[in-house]
Specification:
The chain is mostly helical and 175 residues long. 76% of the residues lie in helices and 2% in strands. The chain has a single domain (2-174), classed as VKOR domain (de novo design (two linked rop proteins), Up-down Bundle). Helix 3 (69-88) packs antiparallel against helix 6.
Length: 175
C-alpha cells in the first residue's frame, strides 16, 4: 500500500513540475516576445524606476551579430515549451531524431539519437541557466546596469532549471 501511494505521489509531482515548467516557459515567451516586439518597432521597452533597460538592451552584449538576444530567448522558451508539452503527452522525441538524423557512425549523432525528451529538457534548461548567469554577471560587472525584463528572463531560466532538476529527481525515484 505504501509503495502504491508513493508512486502515485511521485506521478503527481511529475505532473505538477511539468505544468510549472510549462508556466515558466510561457512567462519567458511573454517576456522575450515583448522585448522582441518592441525591438522590431525600433523602441526600447519602457522600464521600471531604478532600472536602466535602455543601457542594457542597447549594449553590445544584447546582440549576437545583428540579432537581438530577445529573439534567441524567444526561440529558447518556445523550444522548452514544446519539449515540456511533448514530455507531458509522453511523446518520445527519439522517434523524430532517429528519422531525421543521418545514419552516420559519429558519436555525437549516436548520443543525440539516444536522448529522451526529458534529457533534452534538462540539457536546454541547463544551457539557459548557465547563459542567464553569464548575462547577469555582464549586467552586474560589465554594463553596471540592470534591466527589469532581463531579470524576468533570468528568473524564468533559473526557475526552469530548478524545476527540471526536481523533475529529474522525481523521475529517478520512480525507477
Amino acid at each position: 500500500m505504501f509503495i502504491k501511494n508513493f508512486r502515485f505521489m511521485i506521478t503527481n509531482m511529475k505532473t505538477i513540475f511539468t505544468l510549472a515548467i510549462i508556466i515558466a516557459a510561457i512567462l519567458g515567451i511573454y517576456d522575450a516576445g515583448y522585448i522582441t516586439y518592441e525591438k522590431m518597432l525600433g523602441v526600447v521597452p519602457p522600464c521600471q524606476p531604478g532600472f536602466a533597460c535602455a543601457t542594457v538592451l542597447e549594449s553590445p552584449w544584447a546582440y549576437i551579430g545583428p540579432i537581438p538576444l530577445a529573439i534567441y530567448g524567444l526561440v529558447y522558451y518556445l523550444s522548452i515549451l514544446t519539449l515540456a508539452i511533448m514530455y507531458f503527452m509522453q511523446f518520445d522525441i527519439r522517434k523524430i531524431t532517429q528519422k531525421i538524423l543521418p545514419e552516420k557512425d559519429h558519436q555525437l549523432i549516436k548520443l543525440i539519437k539516444r536522448m529522451t525528451t526529458r534529457e533534452w529538457m534538462m540539457a536546454f534548461s541547463t544551457f539557459g541557466f548557465c547563459f542567464s548567469l553569464y548575462l547577469l554577471s555582464l549586467m552586474a560587472f560589465v554594463i553596471n546596469a540592470w534591466c527589469y525584463y532581463c531579470l524576468i528572463s533570468a528568473f524564468a531560466c533559473i526557475s526552469l532549471f530548478i524545476l527540471n532538476l526536481l523533475l529529474w529527481i522525481a523521475e529517478a525515484k520512480t525507477k
